[in-house]
Fold:
Amino acid sequence: MENTENTQHYLTATEAGLVGCRACGTVAPQGTHVCPCCQSRLEFSETASLQKVWAWLVAGLIAYVPANIYPMLRTSTLGQTSENTLMGGIIELVHHGSYGVAFIVFFASILIPIAKFIAIAFLAISVRKPANLGNHGRLVLYEVVEFIGRWSMIDVFVVAILTALVQLDFAAAISPGIAAVSFALSVAFTMLAAQSFDPRLMWLAENRVES
Amino acid sequence: MILDQVIACPVCDALHHDQDVQKHSIAKCARCGTVLAAPKSGAMTRIAMLSLTALILLIAAASFPFLALEVQGLSHQASVLDTILAFASGPMLPLSLATGLLIVLLPAARYCALIYTLAPMAIGYRPAPYAAMVYTWAERLKPWAMAEIFIIGVAVALVKVSGLARVELGPAFWAFAALLIVTILTDSSICRLTVWKTLRTRSTI
Structure:
């Protein structure tokens, strides 16, 4: 890994009057709408990218609220039914004394989603003005957010597996709560927000500072 | 055309001369350090073969017994289809569809697309018709193919249940576990820009 900030000036496709394709690297004259090589849409516009990022991010945040309020799991044991929200499940784990598992669930289902929202918002804000965190720092942040986003879907899969597996009639049965839907939507929207963010914008800001 | 000799870094937009990168060496963007090309010898063959393996494992995972739960004489079996249909009752049906897509259908579609584009090139043929479009879709599907995330979810669920009941692991579980490894191997051998370059040069000949 390079830690030193590279200060040398590099000619970019935009400066050369070209537009690069994010999927295959092909360059085409500016104003071309479809990549001649892979037929992807060629679009490099700050407003279009950031509008999409904010729209998906807000959608993700909205979906995250019911994901926390409503029950994720409904457990019935010997006729007694209890409903667990995300946070409720964690508190129950703490009461049972399994601090390790409680921490992991708290980390994966609460901390990481919130950190993702903050990270994407930070990236979207920071392209408008030069940030303290250098480009390499932001690039690492962007890559981490892109990588980690899909792994949050684990919670939804756990609910599905528990529901399918724990069906012992009267003795014990688990059914999913409506929060599973909101959580899945929240994860999908956040993934779309991260995908809409064009990393080239971070470097465009640097070019503007230079000139 | 001069544009053929230049590529733009997908991450930072810096222009680079499109040189032939030696096998087993890595070309990184001088500005942001993103890996632009990392060709390996026989990578196309390997990816096509691994994709075929993954497809077979996926079919096995979807059809063999998956998990069984046993506690005090009571037992219950669950297949992968049961897991997908976990949300099927009531208003959560769309989530069942999404789960089916994410853990079985989209990974299968992605592997088919990879085989379709890369297998002809691996044996030195011209790309199949619409190969560029199909490969674009394979790349787009990548984040949404979550078979490997599902198996980690299984592991988490097993930790939660194992204290209360005995869980038996069926062949489908091991198929999914193998799929996790094959997926990682496939994804680490794919070099996007090399695939595009090969597609470009082969289709113009």
